Every structure is written in C-alpha cells, then in structure tokens.
Amino acid sequence: MSEKRYVMLADVTRCINCKACVVACRAEWATPLGHSRDWVAEVEDTDDNGMPVLDFFPGRCQHCEDAPCVSACPTGAAWKRDDGIVLVDDPLCSGCELCVPACPYDARWLNSETGKISKCTFCQPRVDEGLQPACVETCVGGALHFGDANDPDSEVSNLLAEKEWVQLTTEAVPASTNHYYYTGGKPLPKAVLPRPVQQSIQEKAISDVVNPTAKIGLGAMVATFAGAGLKKLIERRNELSGDERPAEHGREEQ
Amino acid sequence: MMAEAEKIKVRDRWTIRLHWFNALCWVLLVPSGLGIISGESLRLAPAWWPQFLQTLFGGNQNLILFHVVLGVVWMVGIGLFILLRWRSVVVPFLRNVMVLTPGALWRDLRTLVITMARLFGLMKNVAIPPQGRYNGAQRLLGTMIVFASLAIALSGLYLYFGPMVFHFPDNALYGAIFRWALVVHAAAVFLVLIGLVPHIYFAVVEERESLETMKSGYAEVDFIKHHNPLWYEALKREGKLR
To answer: Does A167 reach chain B within 8 Å, measured CB to CB?
Structure first.
C-alpha cells in the first residue's frame, strides 16, 4: 500500500471571494482577532479586452516538500509528517519565530494568545478523523478540494489528471509543494508568488558563523594535538631505540 | 628503590570532586544538547544523532528536560561550591587565573605561542617567562571558561524558562533575546570544546603529573619548581615549602 500524500487544490476560476473558508478556519482554530491561518488574496488584472478583472487566490501554508520552516526550527517543533502535512508541535514550540522569515508564503505567525506559532495544518485533527479541512468543507464555490494524491481513485487525483494545475513556485523558491492552483491557463500574478526564503540574523549567525567556526576550530585543534602527540610518540620510540643501542654495544664488547 | 618525590597538597577534596563533576556534566550535556537541535540549518551534529537521541528519550521534549535538569544540577553544583569555598578556593583561583588587563593578555598569549611552538620543536631557544600557579595558556583557557560558563548558564536558563516566564507576543524583544541566547549558548559551548582539546591533551599526554594532581590533590615539589617557579617562590614565602 502506498503512503498517503495529502494535497489541497484551489480552483481560482471558481473562487468568489466569499471568504467562507477564512471564517470556517477562524472558527475551527479560534484564531485571535486580526489573524487567520488562511486568506484570500485579491489580485487586480485586465482581461484580453483591457477591462479590469479581479482574481481571487485562496492562500495558506503550501506544505512544501522541503520546508524551510522545518530547517529553521531549533527544536523540531516545525515538522513534516510522512503524508506531506507540515505541523507545529506546540509543547516544543517556544515562539522564537526563527521559522517566520523562513516561510516564503508568510503563512506562519506568532499566536498572541498561545505564544506559539500558528499556521495551516490542513486541519490535521479533522483529516485524521476522516473529515475534510474546515475551509474545504465550507467552500461555497467548490473551489477548494482536498485528498490523497497517492490514491488514484480520489477526487484530487482525478482533478489533477483533468486540468493543468500549477504551484506557487519561482526560480528562487523552486521547492515542490502539496498545494495546487488552477488558473484557467492564466499566468500566476506576481502578487501571489512566494518571496525568497529569508533567514533571521540569528539563524545566519549560527549557520554561517558559529557552526562552521566550531567545525574548523575543533578540527584544527584535534589535528594539531594529534600531530603533537604523534611527534611525541615518534620521539619516544627513537629515544627508546637509542637507549637500547649502548646496551647492545656493551654486549658486543663483552 | 628510588626515594619518593617530595609532594605538597595543592587542592582540596571538594575542588577535585567539582572538577570531575563538571567534566561528567559536560560529557552528558554536550551530546544531549547536540541532540536537541533538530533544524538542518542550525544543527551541528549529523542528522542521525538528534533522530537517535530523541527516539531513545521518547521525544525531544524528554531530551530537553533531561538536558535542562542536568544543566540546573550543573549550575547548582558549581553555585554551591562558589558559595561554600568563596574565600578559600574561588577568590584565589580567580586571582590566579583571570586575564583581565592588556598587559596580562599579551604576556599570556606570548607564553601560549611559545608553549605551542615547542610542541613541534620550534622556539626552543626562546625562554618561557617564569609562570605562576597557572601558566599563560591555562590562564587564557581558564578566563575563557569562566566567561563562557556564565554565558552558557544564563543563555540556557533563558532558553528554557524564558518562554514560560515571558509571553513572547507581548514584546518582540523577548523572542529576539531568545534567538540571541541560542547563538550565545552554541558559540560559548563550542568555544569551550575547542579549548578542551589542549586541556585534555596536556593532562593525558604532556603533563600527566597534573592529571595525578587532579586525582590526589598532591603535586610534586620538583614539578612545581620546574613548571611554575613563581608559584614555587610564593609557596616558600608563605612557609608552605622549606
């Protein structure tokens, strides 16, 4: 049996910006005022006739395959399940926000009530009970779909096969995600594309200065003193063989 | 049979116990600390080490708890020693070991360079200036360890208790201090580890007498006279040596 791979599909052409998904998410997770784990980005554009149009992009954590937030988390509070869902282990999260600049989708934020990092988890507790994420269940326009992409009979597998789906990736952020968008063939607007992954100054200090210096420093010290020890060993062996010589010489004389 | 070398007691039982207690704490704290740091961008140990240790402890939360409890035991142990032996051991130790002026730093650095060079057969004709109870290299290492231990203790306390005491969303400074504490904690530990390489080398290979002293508390008078002439003179002045 193949492993599950949960994915979210957002059909932009069906989104009516009703924000029912945002309301459902905030209700499900009781997020503090002014914060939500998902959002709908409104992007102004013009159609082929030059008339203004407004596109709506439902957004949330994209559940990256190689998640930069996981890499930036000191304790492993940010982690990725085998089924593709990126989660936060609350007891391990200290709220240090090292993961916040790492997320190119700005999907992580410090919860003012819990003091922990909040983000979309694809409603993991609901998913584990066999339910759909709250946003998908409530989506009025039928724009959001969720399921196991490794199950060839699932709705998402069929949809993925039927249409041309794209991911919010760029040259700077090329990592594959578990979130797909259908735009009806329109190119993705710049406004919804990810920003480059950023490192906080402290993460840079550790990854670029402290750790390399420690490796070089420890390596150099061990090599230096191993060399000194070896030199001493050789000198002692020479001394010992030197001590033996007069005795042999003495025997010859006898 | 050779006559037994004249020895003098230079260290009390509790100082020796503290040294080995400190060493044991480090042996347990460093590997567990390396096992806590999980994120690829931050960890120094290879990926299998945190995975192995966190599995062994039934999760990183337990491993963190083990590290913190041991860290607090380390702080309390040293703290109690400092309180109880402040005048008899700690103050004299700090007086002997701390390098606090540019002049002392220069002298000790010079001694360190000559000592290191001699290991490789260099600077044999350059005399090492007479040394006190601790030589230049020991003084530099000791000063670094005193400051690094303070930094490790304070940053470690904040890393664990900071998020419990302060509500990070209230003030961005709380989180910033946490992140810097992580940098300081790691940097100070690695600095000490780098310094421990020569510390262990000299104790085990070059000057086994000092390792013996750290076990028995007694040092050979001839050894002191040869390696630490200023200390030898001081011991004579104090009437501890004939």
So the answer is: no
